[in-house]
Task: structure prediction
Amino acid sequence: MIGPFPRRPLIGALTAAIGLGLVLTLSLGSVPTVTRDPGRYVTDATALGPAVGAHMEIPASQPLADGRVWGDLTAEERSGTLVILNFFATWCPPCQQEMPVLRAFDGLYRDRGLRIIGISVSETTADVARYAEEYSITYPLLVDAAGTLFRAAAVGGLPTQLLLDGSGRVLAVLPQPLTAADGVELIEPLLAGR
Result:
């Protein structure tokens, strides 16, 4: 028999349900926004990155995670036949998931002229240095603490890859993590064509 319910437990259950609904609604505002590309953390959904053919230049004074600045690197360390500028953040799961792929590409293609340059967005040098150690990263990691390079490149999400030729001209903008298949389908053809 469904009978009369005492008011006190009913009011308590309704209050709990309303409170839970409010907490769930408010929590949606703190969840990273995902756009049409699953797993992409977006800060500006309208930003498409630089135009193909645009020129990208990193200031000599840009700090590196190891305490040096960009200008301290040799020309060979800064440039190659093909350069991947990898905009990332240490807290970003898709960025962490692509790290083994980037390390593998660095090992496989460095001798053929590929240079990978990581650009950590809005983080401290100490955090990026710990990340480099944790993931055994041997390519340069720039620290873009104020997001200056990120905004200058008109990048809207993390991770985003800018593929550049040896002169710094943009060949492609990839607003997603790199995968192992990109080595054969993307990197090798670009290296072979140079």
In short: Residues 41-192 form a domain with the Glutaredoxin fold (CATH 3.40.30.10). The radius of gyration is 22 Å. The chain is about 35% helix and 20% strand. Confidence is low (pLDDT under 50) at residues 19-40.
